[in-house]
Amino acid sequence: LLSNVGWAGDAVDVQYSYWRSANPASLIEVKNQPLENWQQVTQLASYGFDDAEYWIKLDIENRGPQPVSRIFRFVHPVLDEVDIYHFTDNLLINEWHLGDAVPGMVRDVHEKNPAFKLTISPKQLSQVYIRVAGINAMVLTMEVLDDSQHDALVQSSILIAGLVYGILLVMALYNLSLAVSIFDRAYLYYVAYVLCFIAFVLAVSGDGYYFLWPRWPGFNSVAVPLFSGLLMIPSLLFPLYFLDIKRHAPQISRLIKWAVVIGVLYLICIPFMGLATALKVINVYSVLVSAMMLIVGVYLSIKKVPFAVIYTLAWCSLMAGLVLLPLSSLGFIESNTFTRNASFLGGVIEVIVLSLALAQRFRNERSAKIELIQHVLTAKSEAANNLKMFEELFELAPVGIFRFKINGELVAVNPALTKLLGFKDATGLLKQGNSIRGYFDNGLSMAREVLRKGYVIDRESTLTTTKGEERTCSISMRVQTQHKDHYVEGYVTDI
């Protein structure tokens, strides 16, 4: 990295200055600007979203005895229009027209960031004027590198990009296979989040325009606001189902759903609001959503919702990565390979942590299901044993037992009642239905009473058998409910 004094032992000295032009300016107008209009700085920085043009002037001097070559490189890959004019002795030596909104762009330096290479003769003083315009953030921080430094930087950038995309794709495909097999919404939204994050990284890192769609600058212009908006939707829906927020915090669940609706409306309105406005809107929206989900994660962690702590830590790793890039661009911390790629590395850490949390959640749910199945099997076994015991008691009981439906259908009698009424077997008795009341002298009144009160306890009655024998009995009945059906169950004791 080079400030206005250069790096130690380097013969090249670079002075930075910039001029903000509210209206489009020609190169001649820029060169004729009075000196006081130029803001001299030790290093260029980020100037936010600005519709104005920014003109950068580099005063470059080679104080050494040998010619040197230097590559001047913007650290931010997403700049729409970058026009570069190289002057020596007030003569235009060369010019380059770069930027991800320039159709048919020819790169003098083969890399995704806007960059150009100068060879500076000994004792030579050169000036470079650079015009930067567009709808993206004016992150104008530059690096000055020799060939070996640039090659090492590009190689490390490619290795990191390969690592990032490789891990993200593996996580997406692995969890997609699980999502298809178990059809869990948390897995589906996780996969959608990872895929949208890959698209977002391709757009904001310049990899998409450099490797995938170099011939479509129009699509590239809309890629950042489009993929940023798409990323917001699964980033909201994933924790909604992963943390089961609807059950643990219904009001927060409704708030998240409204945030999703706003995100969908944003995507629909992109063609109508314009790309510049869309970028500003999505930046504000993403900041609000990020803050909201961080607060939600902390709140659910305090409530001890399962996996809320892991989700919050994963989200914090992404937030930390996103904060490091602007801090390094503004010069608050050192700009190096790590800080330039911190947002992507933070995203990778988040994706891995959430994938591990999903796997643990799946194992917990599977263990709970296995435990439930074992409980059900045990309960069925106990129920079968109880049923067998009940059937034995029913068959061997010394008192008569019966069961009626409310409509009068007799559905069960035991051998003791069959014998007491004088029947040879239960088949004939079951056909009697309501007429069984006729065997008791007060059968009709007892039937009305049990329907009215729900029970009859120890009511004395005279029973006349099929053989004409009279027996004094005690009858108890009660209305029971089973599977929403009502029954009258009771027993008859010969006293």
Structure notes:
This protein is of the alpha+beta class. It has 14 helices and 14 strands. A six-stranded antiparallel β-sheet has the order 2-1-3-8-5-6. A five-stranded antiparallel β-sheet has the order 11-10-14-13-12. Helix 8 crosses helix 9 and helix 9 runs antiparallel to helix 11. The chain is rod-shaped, with a radius of gyration of 41 Å.
In spatial order, strands of the major sheet run: 2-1-3-8-5-6
Task: Summarize model confidence as the mean pLDDT.
Answer: 87
Strand content: 15-25%
Shape, per Cα inertia axes: rod-shaped
Number of strand segments = 14
* Assembly of the depicted chains: single chain
The low-confidence parts are 1-9
Give a nutshell description of this structure.
The chain is 51% helix and 22% strand.
Give the key terms.
five-stranded antiparallel β-sheet, six-stranded antiparallel β-sheet, 14 strands, 495 residues, single chain, alpha+beta, disordered N terminus
Task: Walk me through the topology.
Layout (H helix, E strand, L loop, with lengths): L11 E10 L5 H5 L7 E3 L11 E10 L5 E7 L6 E8 L2 E8 L16 E6 L4 E9 L8 E4 L1 H36 L2 H21 L1 H6 L4 H26 L2 H4 L1 H24 L1 H28 L5 H22 L7 H4 L1 H55 L3 E6 L4 E4 L1 H7 L4 H5 L12 H11 L1 E10 L5 E13 L2 E10 L1
Antiparallel strand pairs: 1-2, 1-3, 3-8, 4-7, 4-9, 5-6, 5-8, 10-11, 10-14, 12-13, 13-14
